[in-house]
Automatic annotation (TrEMBL):
Protein origin, superkingdom: Bacteria
Pfam families reported for this sequence: GerE (PF00196), Response_reg (PF00072)
UniProt-recorded name of the protein: Response regulator transcription factor
PROSITE patterns: HTH_LUXR_1, HTH_LUXR_2, RESPONSE_REGULATORY
4-aspartylphosphate found at: D54
CDD domains: REC_DesR-like
Lineage start: Bacteria, Bacillati, Actinomycetota, Actinomycetes, Kitasatosporales
């Protein structure tokens, strides 16, 4: 049996995924989790083979949780299952140690196939998203530029961003200017929106 942990903050989606997977004779859903902060403890308690994680969840996002699981339970493989078909998220998911990436409008049989492949030690990525990721390339932002845009998206002044990241105001301005140029935006708010839309934050 393939032991699967499901994590999604939308109860209807979580229930539907569990119902679909329980129809498979070789899959056992061992946990249904609604927040990112609960996943690691539940995984340690239930020892799943596969953790199927949403990206945006309360507490900790699925990409962070994937990295947590990779460190704490390396035998548990992760698949990101999300509404966000963004190449940037795919790249970040693979960097976090995920073995698969599917979008929520994936046909049930393809999701089941992804689980079986990942359980067998293979990787599975939604084919259309993989093609888009190859065409689009990696994020143009440095890690620090992404950090600055992430904080800038919450509002606040350059001084607020500098204080939050423990940088000088001049350094923050330089990172913002560079990020605005790389995203071809007109303002830092627009740069943050574009970076988020591409999954770079």
């Amino acid at each position: 049996m393939i032991r699967v942990l499901l994590a999604d903050d939308q109860a209807l989606v979580l229930g539907a995924l569990a119902s679909v997977l329980r129809l498979e004779p070789d899959i056992d859903v061992v946990a249904e989790i609604g927040t990112g902060t609960e996943v690691l403890a539940a995984a340690q308690r239930t020892a799943p083979d596969i953790a199927l994680l949403d990206v945006q969840m309360p507490g900790r996002d699925g990409l962070t949780v994937a990295a947590d699981l990779q460190r704490a339970l390396p035998a548990c493989r992760t698949i990101i299952c999300t509404t966000f078909s963004r190449p940037g998220y795919l790249s970040r998911a693979m960097s976090a140690g995920a073995s698969g990436y599917v979008v929520k409008d994936t046909p049930p049989e393809q999701l089941v196939d992804a689980i079986r492949r990942v359980h067998a030690g293979l990787r599975f990525v939604d084919p259309a998203l993989a093609a888009e990721a190859l065409a689009g390339g990696a994020s143009p932002l440095t890690g620090r530029e992404a950090d600055v845009l992430r904080v800038a998206a919450e509002g606040g002044t350059v001084a607020d961003i500098a204080r939050a990241l423990r940088l000088s105001q001049g350094t923050v301005r330089n990172h913002l200017s560079s990020a605005i140029g790389k995203t071809q935006a007109r303002t830092r708010a627009e740069a943050a929106r574009l970076a988020e839309a591409n999954g770079w934050l």
